[in-house]
Specification:
Layout (H helix, E strand, L loop, with lengths): L10 E3 L8 E3 L4 H6 L13 H12 L17 H5 L2 H10 L13 E3 L6 H12 L28 E3 L49
Parallel strand pairs: 1-4
Antiparallel strand pairs: 2-3
Helix pairs in contact: 2-5, 4-5
């Protein structure tokens, strides 16, 4: 095996998508422990502009935006404030952000999880009446790349046939086998990316 760099990445275009994660062996466990307790601030000091927007823009808005699988957008104060109660409920239950790995078993780069401090800030913001704060201090609304997230692929492989999602009905869990004859000899795969043809009907995948 020569490890030809031209085949160092295999990118897959099929009707499913995922977030790529890499195991992090040297995570700082002490810093995690420091984030396990939230210390409330005086009432009115937690605002959307300075505290909540940075969290939701970085953790939620990639899916909660037009054209993606989430059912509503979280890109503005109005979008988020009217759903503050729902947001608190889903983050407290662990339903959102969606993340399946058991935290006791290890850590990952780019984990889509919230610390106790982040959860506490959102909870206090809601309890205090969801104040907006100074809009000029809010981060810019994020812009997203809807192309290949990891750069141009060395190889694109596709399903032999499209898989049609019904307009109504329960969630569909489907196993797909992707032909890889184009790879030829055995190759090491460094990274994998997924581009659904219709992101609105795709929630997650398991590779």
């Amino acid at each position: 095996m020569n490890g030809n760099p031209n085949w160092s990445k295999v990118l897959v275009m099929i009707g499913i998508c995922a977030l790529a994660v890499v195991a992090c062996e040297d995570a700082d466990q002490s810093s995690r422990a420091d984030q396990n307790v939230y210390k409330p601030r005086p009432k009115g000091q937690v605002t959307f502009a300075e505290d909540v927007a940075p969290i939701l823009f970085s953790r939620c808005s990639e899916c909660h935006r037009p054209g993606q699988s989430a059912p509503f957008s979280l890109l503005s104060y109005d979008d988020i404030a009217k759903r503050s109660k729902q947001i608190v409920e889903v983050i407290e239950s662990g339903y959102m952000p969606p993340w399946l790995p058991d935290q006791a078993k290890g850590t990952f780069i780019n984990e889509r999880i919230l610390s106790a401090t982040e959860k506490g800030l959102i909870r206090q913001w809601h309890t205090d009446g969801a104040p907006e704060g100074n809009p000029e201090k809010a981060p810019a609304v994020p812009e997203f790349n809807d192309g290949w997230k990891l750069g141009p692929p060395d190889l694109i492989v596709r399903l032999p046939q499209e898989f049609v999602i019904p307009a109504e009905g329960p969630d569909i869990y489907r196993n797909f086998v992707i032909p890889l004859e184009e790879l030829g000899d055995q190759k090491f795969v460094r990274t994998v990316d997924f581009r659904p043809l219709n992101p609105k009907v795709v929630h997650h995948m398991v590779l």
